[in-house]
Every structure is written in C-alpha cells, then in structure tokens.
Design brief:
With 337 residues, the protein is an alpha/beta fold. It is 42% helix and 15% strand.
Length: 337
C-alpha cells in the first residue's frame, strides 16, 4: 500500500488562512501567538492530519529539545516520584525525555558517552555517582548538567539537594532524647555524599547528648542488603535499641526484619527513623518516623536551574533546601521515654 505523503505546514497555513511562520509558532513551546490564530491553526492541522516534524526542527534550531534523566535505581520510591515530577515539568516546557537507569556497578562512563552522542540539550542526574572526569567532559562538551539529591565538589555543575546534615543531626538527637543509648546507623552507598552528610549530622546529634554510634553498617540503599545488615546487628551480644536508616527504603526493610523475623516490637524494643518521607512511610502498617525531603521543591528548583542554563547560559548554581522531621509511630518520643 502506497504511503500517503506527509501534510506540510504550508498546507495547514493555506487552510487556516495564516502565514507559514504562524503555524511554526503554534507548535513551538513558549512562542508568541494569539489564541485566535492558535485555534485556527490547530483546527486546520486536525482536519488535515498534520504532525510537526520535530527532527527537521531540531536540525534547524540546533536543538533536539531532549533532556536525559539519569539515575542508578528505581527501587527507592523517592526516585520514581522524582522522575514523574521532572517528566511533567520538562514536558510542559516542550522537551522530550530519555531515561537512563545505570546501576552503580555498571559502565557509567560508557553510558555517559551514549548520552552525549544523543545530542541532548541538558542532563538531570538523580543521585548517580559522578566522577570529576565525567563532569569535566560534560562541561567541556557544553551540555548543561544538574545533580539532584547529590552534592559534588566540582565546578560548573548545578546541584540541588536537601539539608542532609541537619536531617541526620535531628535523628541522632531525637533518638538520644528518647532515652536510647545503643543507636545504630544503616548507611547508604559508601561514596554517596547524601549518606555521608546524614551520618556526619547523626554523629554530631549523638555527641550533643554524650553518645557515639553503637554500630555503623552499609545497606547501600538496597532493601535486601538492609535486611541482611539488620540481622547482622541483632546477631551481636549487645544489640541496638534504636536504628537510623539513611533512606525510607532501607528503614522499611529494617522494620520488616525486626517485626517479622526477629520478633521485636517497634518502638517498644527498638525505635526506627528513616529519611525521605516517601508515600509508603505514611502507610498505617509502617507509620514511619522520618525526615522529609521537599521533593516537589527540589524538582522545581532543579528543572528551573537546568532550563536557565539551556536558555540563558551562565554559571551553574547550587541550592540546599531545608528538611522537616515527620513524627509518626516508629520512634519513642522524648516525653514518654
């Protein structure tokens, strides 16, 4: 069957009684065009079955209108939420999205090569580990890059993350004020700046009450690893009476293990605090005490910074956003200690 020739913008302009440039503006995000003209163009386009040629436009404009979203995992509920919010925001700006899921153990430099070869207009990296050499490669290639939920000491890279230190400080101090003395920390990925800053705050929060961490284990932000490390903590002679996990994802694994494998009551026997405030933490079966990251604000700021770099150029910015303690039922409250 012979394929019907594609409808051109010239045909749409003729039927709508407008100029060809008006048709182009109608299908260009943020372009100036009256509502009356837009309606005429859209009506003619629908009647003719017209679809704008985005490939041809990208060649003319030297822009693919594509953003790469890069992250290391979708297991942690924080990141699907972030991807969903970022997708809506970029789509509202008229950008297509390329999603790259790159586990920490995979060939990250190779993936970055493929991203740069895709000629994307910008990169939003969600908590992936970025080396200084790869960062310089992006900067040298002139590709705007913003890191979300991860901080790096690299010039030219935009960064948006929450106040991890003070979130950790609150968790350590709160557990100490609750009367706990053997307080353990389940860390994320060892090289992660977010986990490291949460731990530093946690240590200082304990120190303010004359305490040190009872134990530190690495859950690597992984559910099964956090379960294994919880078993390990409770196989010791002296066991924790409280646990601070560097993410809700791991805190839920800790809760599951304590309650259903080890027969522990939470918070009567062991208190648990997480970090993120993902939707699952509010479920009645968990009711997790945690530290809330302002995810919608983080996404809004990160996407705005990236759009500004793409459209206006200029230097990269770093933003640190405040966190909020969320008191639920998994940590003993100081007034009842």
């Amino acid at each position: 069957m012979k394929q019907r020739p594609a409808v051109t913008s010239k045909e749409v302009a003729r039927l709508a009684g407008v100029s060809q440039s008006a048709v182009s503006r109608c299908f260009s995000p943020n372009a100036s065009i009256s509502e009356k003209t837009r309606e005429k163009v859209l009506r003619a386009a629908q009647e003719l079955g017209y679809r704008p040629n985005t490939v041809a436009r990208s060649l003319i404009m030297r822009s693919t209108r594509t953003i790469a979203l890069v992250l290391s995992s979708l297991d942690n509920m924080f990141y699907p939420m972030a991807v969903q919010m970022a997708s809506r925001r970029f789509q509202d700006e008229g950008y297509h999205l390329l999603l790259f899921v790159v586990p920490e153990s995979d060939d990250f430099p190779g993936v970055m090569d493929r991203i740069l070869q895709s000629q994307v207009d910008g990169i939003l990296m969600l908590s992936a580990l970025l080396t200084s050499s790869l960062a310089r490669e992006c900067v040298n290639a002139g590709v705007p890059l913003v890191l979300l939920n991860r901080g790096v000491d690299i010039e030219g890279i935009g960064q948006v993350y929450s106040d991890n230190y003070h979130g950790g400080y609150w968790a350590g101090s709160y557990l100490a004020m609750g009367g706990h003395r053997n307080i353990a920390f389940v860390a994320g990925v060892e090289r992660s700046s977010t986990s490291r800053r949460r731990f530093e705050g946690f240590v200082d929060g304990l120190a303010a009450h004359g305490l040190k961490p009872h134990a530190v284990v690495h859950g690597d932000y992984d559910f099964e690893m956090a379960r294994q490390q919880t078993r390990r903590l409770f196989a010791e002679t002296v066991v924790p009476d409280a646990i601070f996990a560097a993410s809700d994802h791991m805190a839920v694994a800790v809760l599951e293990t304590l309650r259903h494998e080890l027969g522990k009551r939470v918070p009567e026997d062991v208190s648990v605090i997480g970090f993120d405030d993902t939707p699952v933490s509010a479920w009645p079966s968990y009711s997790l005490t945690t530290v809330r990251q302002p995810i919608d604000q983080m996404i809004e700021v990160a996407t705005s910074l990236l759009m500004r770099q793409i459209h206006e150029g200029g230097g990269a910015e770093s933003r640190v956003l405040p966190v909020i303690p969320v008191l639920r039922e998994t940590a003993r409250r100081p007034d009842s200690a």
